[in-house]
Amino acid sequence: MKNNTVHSVSIIEIPKIIDENSRGNLSVIEKEILPFSIERVYYLYDVPSDAFRGGHAHKNLRQFLIPISGSFDVVIKDGQATRTITLNKPNKGLLIVPGIWRELENFSSGAICLVLASEVYDESDYIRDYEVFLEHKIR
Asked: Which residue ranges form the domains of the chain, and what is each CATH number?
């Protein structure tokens, strides 16, 4: 957790199967796509454009965020650097490693964020105070 930086976060392309008969596309996530087993799946939707989600870091949990519909920004921080990544393609997701503060904002109308998580929900894995997060990063 301590050594992860904003550069440890990465975009992963999800294979896209294009239908030759123009019936739409299909993307599949199988075990070799992600560097973890999926233990929990949830999604965010109907988020007002002026609201934000997240505002925390995880000690152990890894997450893969996919913009199923619409777009949103993911602001990531490692205590020293900040990056903003716009997610707007359903065949590209963002892998967030432990020890990275994240905030999701600027949701477009109808945006849906699908999250694949490496662990089941565990409140003790969350760091919800930014100052506490900074303390964890320097330990």
From this structure: 6-138 (2.60.120.10)
